[in-house]
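Forgive a beginner's question, but might I ask you for the amino acids of a protein and the tokens describing how it folds?
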Amino acid sequence: MDKLLNLHNVGVIRDGRTILQSDDLHIPLRGITALVGPNGAGKTTLLRLIHGLIEPSIGQCERPFAPHESALVFHYTPMLKATVREHLTLLRDTDRTIRDEAIDEVLQSVGIAHLANNPAQRLSAGERQKLCFARARLQNPKLVLLDEPTANLDPNASDDVEQMIAQLAKDGKAVLFASHNMAQVKRLATHLIFMQDGKILEISSPGVFFKNPQTKEGSQFLAREFIAQ
């Protein structure tokens, strides 16, 4: 059965400006869902709302997962003055059951076990993102939220991240990722949400959206994206 994010006339207002608003919407969170739209569409705000980092200014948001059941990975995460392994052992502050063996396994699974004792601040952009994925996997969430997970990565690192996203879904996690890379969306996503001006305008499959968007805004967005690419 689908897990639903229920938005009841939600509005998120910052500095007098509405940056996210919805009517009564029920958004399924299953498989791999791509969140697409132009800059300023409200994608990051929606991810933060789903994760529970922010609450709506008006309306109600009924989340299908508790905060500890979701993990949020941004496209850039500042690193502490600590080793790669120490970044993961910090999770024991909230979960004492995490074993050393689990940390070793997750580092191996994302391909940075050989960097375990290296300073995290010296990692490349791709290696930092792998560490963030390792942290997310170690939390064993039911929902993984990703904000532009391959932004500013080289093609090889992007390929690695895409494989990790696909593996999360194979492991039974629901994944929601924001992306401007339409080729990536086509490769990965089973579902799609299109946003513009803080509003969710379409919820469909990538096949339907790319072939026959249901809104004028969707058609204009695709025309701009594919011309740019």
Summary: The mean pLDDT is 93. Residues 3-77+141-228 form a domain with the Rossmann fold fold (CATH 3.40.50.300). The chain has one domain: 3-77+141-228. DSSP finds eight helices and ten strands in the chain.
